[in-house]
Description:
Layout: H1 12-26, H2 36-47, H3 54-71, H4 75-101, E1 114-117, H5 124-131, E2 137-138, H6 142-146, H7 161-176, H8 180-183, H9 194-198, H10 206-210, H11 214-221, H12 226-241, E3 249-253, H13 261-267, E4 272-277, H14 280-298, H15 304-328, E5 335-339, H16 340-345, H17 347-358, H18 364-376, H19 396-402, H20 404-420
Parallel strand pairs: 1-3, 1-4, 2-3, 4-5
Helix pairs in contact: 2-4, 3-11, 12-13, 14-15
Amino acid sequence: MYDTPIPVDRSLSLRFLNRAGAIAERCGIRLFDPDPGRLLAEAAAATGFDYADDAMSEGLGELLRSIRADARPNAFGKIALRNLVKRNAESRFRIEQNLAASPEIAEERIDRPVFIVGMPRSGTTILQALLHLDAAHRSPLCWECLLPHPAPPPADYQANERLDAIRKEFARLFALVPDFRRKHYMEADSPQECIAVTALNFTSFQFIAQCYLPGYHEWFVGAADQVGNFRWHRRFLQHLQSGGLRPDRWLLKSPFHLMRLKALFEVYPDARIVMTHRDPSALVPSTASLISSMRSLYSDHEDTARTGREQLHVWADYFDRALTDRAALDKEDQIVDVRFDDFAEDQMAVVDRLYARFGWELDAASRARMERFLVHERRGRHGEHEYSLTQIGLTESDIRRHYGDYLDFLRDLEGRAVRTGTG
Length: 423
């Protein structure tokens, strides 16, 4: 009943590409050769810099092994994965070349970065976009993560050839998949998630969202070096700000930091955390349907029920890890909880609470930008993306069984909000 994906509106061009690709492969043309040694050698040849890093190589090897074993990509998926891996490897090599040539970049300060964490579909994207409008904040932008070298100088930060190139690339993507923007807001110059940064280390949930990769995910949550991944993350930020644009605070976001708060604080001990919360009965189906839609773009064998079960377990595990880490860490003064319902009701009230809690000042110009943004960017601008548990083969009892501790946490959070009147 649920063995077909949440439908994606595939354009005629995309359907033609997949058919043509299948014909090409039957004629012996390989669209993607998942050989890590060859891909790294090609990156070295393209950049003129031979870089070796055990963690990056391990992640790439695990990724490609799982693509071969699990993903079953169609022609579009193979071409997209090939281009993604190639671009990421070359970008990483170019950044490492820059860091090696300018060792002083390692002294760039990253003070009190702000991390927005919480399950997808809990308001993290709109909250980051809103806070990004404060001139004191800087987030890695989509174009910077896709084409990060050289580090952008202030003079052409908002208008340059790389930004134009990514705008055109996104336009092609939206033409191939017309409803993609409705399901996930994304512009070339919008703030990007940390998964795009860690994808350059090949240790990222980004690949798991794109393809069914159980082998890679097992490695990602188990053997992968998460502290080393955050050290790379920090070096990436140092690279970006070495161009001269040094913010008061970096503003960062990833739901997947939930599973690694200890590692985050080991690398960023003075970090500020904004943790968003929403009833998992709404979160799990919305997240699973988004991932199922994404995967159905890369493969013709996506199974929505399988993805629903997978995401049910994934986020229960991530929340358990987050609550366990919070209990063990002495960092509550650096963490603010934000309930989705409160944020949906009054975004600026939540913003004011964050600023008061962290001792920030919101100037009049930044507040005005935020208020204008909210007028034009209310939820649902590109259409609602909400699905029920039944559409992914799950029930309310599944949620209660797997999210008991987290539901208790939410009830306690609501009780504290009522008692203190903080929302």
